[in-house]
Amino acid sequence: METKLQLIFTLSTLISITGSSDVFGAVGESVQLEMQNPGAEFKTLSWIFNGSKNVLYYNKKNNDIDLSPNYRDRVEFDKETYSLTLKNLQKNDSGLYEVIIFLRFSRYIKGFTLSVFDPVKSPLLTFQQNPDSCNVTLTCRGHDLSIGSSCYNTTCEEKEVTSPGGVALSLSVLDSSIVCNHSNPISWKKTTVELEIFRYLCPSEDAVSPPAGESAGVSVCLVKTGLYSITLIILLSAVITVHLRERCNKSSN
């Protein structure tokens, strides 16, 4: 029994596993799987994909890199940090990448779980009024997700939903707008609707007064009409006066 325990302890010291880090990338872009120097001399290093697919093999002593044909022109290897950069990402590049460094008496393993996403598109935000009330039904759609919510006048219900793949859709109120936000770990888009629209849909609850400029416009119009009337009266009086004088002059002669 003691011999077995010693063997298990010895094997555990030969392999150093630091766990896996989550990394996100966009289709067509690049991402770096950043390594930290193990702090010890080593002979060789390997990058592998999903536990079995070789990406590259590096012999430090000979300064030689053996790159898999499937990754030619698609990866860059930093000989100082041992980091790997993947270029022109595609959806099928998603998976587990591991670097295995063969030290003198042990192995150092570091994992990176890469998820590649398409940039999201702007969500579609629509609303429909209930003809019998001030209730408005909101619908927000993006990708394969959809959210339904309701507003009464300018009070709206906020909601959020997230898919297992990390795509999120949310409805929220920000300042004077309703915001439909569509996002994933590498991008986001939003569509907004002004809350003021719902005030006009429900005038009995919250009547909107006409702008001050409209009242001012009516007053100016009345003043102009009055001035025109006065001018017309003055002109008419002048014509009548001239006419009466002419008649008086004819009578005198």
UniProtKB/TrEMBL annotation:
Broad class of where this protein is predominantly found: membrane
GO cellular component, one term: membrane
One of the Pfam families matching this protein, by short name: V-set
Signal peptide feature range: 1-20
Domain Immunoglobulin: 20-117
Keyword Transmembrane helix: yes
Keywords carried by this UniProt record: Glycoprotein, Membrane, Signal, Transmembrane, Transmembrane helix
Record keyword Glycoprotein present: yes
Membrane-spanning parts: 226-244
Location of the protein in the cell: Membrane
Coiled-coil regions, chain positions: none
PANTHER family: NATURAL KILLER CELL RECEPTOR 2B4, SIGNALING LYMPHOCYTIC ACTIVATION MOLECULE
Protein name (record): SLAM family member 7-like
Protein's organism: Astyanax mexicanus (Blind cave fish)
Organism lineage string: Eukaryota, Metazoa, Chordata, Craniata, Vertebrata
Name of the gene this protein is made from: SLAMF9
